[in-house]
Automatic annotation (TrEMBL):
It comes from Amycolatopsis albidoflavus. PANTHER family: TRANSCRIPTIONAL REGULATOR REDD, TRANSCRIPTIONAL REGULATOR REDD-RELATED. Keywords: Transcription, Transcription regulation. Residues 17-156 form the Bacterial transcriptional activator domain. This is Bacterial transcriptional activator domain-containing protein. The keyword NAD does not apply.
């Protein structure tokens, strides 16, 4: 412990706090002068995000800090995904799955995942992603929007001709 001006704080020479690494990476991203430095900082943010800040503690002052931390992590994942989607869509899909883990009820993330699964030819995965979204939203007593269901249907049928419900289409006359 260090004492300064009547306050105590942890001594960074003897104590390591995971949030400090995360906060340092966020600061580095904000101060980055080059695209590579921003990318490096975003990768560090994603690496050091440990999930909900102070999970298990219940205090009013934590709500804003939790949301800011989650938002910083999602912003970093989104920036990495935008930077890598053209060159490495498989890595980008992994990033989107990371974003889904960070924010499991974010319907827009699931839509991006389905679009990329379609692009990568992983059409069966689209149905599983929609099912996972339904499961996660059921935790909140809600369901996916009709736009999301329609998107999944269009993407799945586009190349396979198989509806999401698995039923066969009637033969053309």
């Amino acid at each position: 412990m260090l004492a300064e001006h009547g306050q105590y704080r942890l001594d960074p020479a003897t104590v390591d706090v995971d949030f400090w690494r995360f906060a340092s990476a966020v600061t580095a991203r904000r101060a980055a002068a080059t695209a590579q430095h921003r990318t490096d900082a975003c990768e560090a943010i994603v690496t050091h995000y440990g999930g909900t800040l102070a999970d298990g503690l219940d205090s009013e002052w934590l709500a804003a800090a939790r949301e800011a931390t989650r938002r910083d992590a999602l912003d970093a994942v989104a920036a990495l995904a935008r930077a890598r989607v053209a060159d490495d869509p498989d890595y980008t899909l992994d990033l989107l799955e990371t974003a889904r883990a960070f924010d499991p009820h974010n319907e827009l993330v699931y839509r991006d995942i389905m679009r990329l699964q379609h692009r990568l030819g992983r059409h069966d995965a689209i149905s599983r992603t929609l099912t996972l979204l339904r499961t996660r939203l059921a935790e909140l007593d809600t369901t996916p929007t009709t736009d999301t269901v329609a998107l999944a249907q269009r993407l799945r049928e586009h190349d396979t001709g198989i509806p999401l419900d698995g039923t066969a289409r009637p033969a053309a006359p």
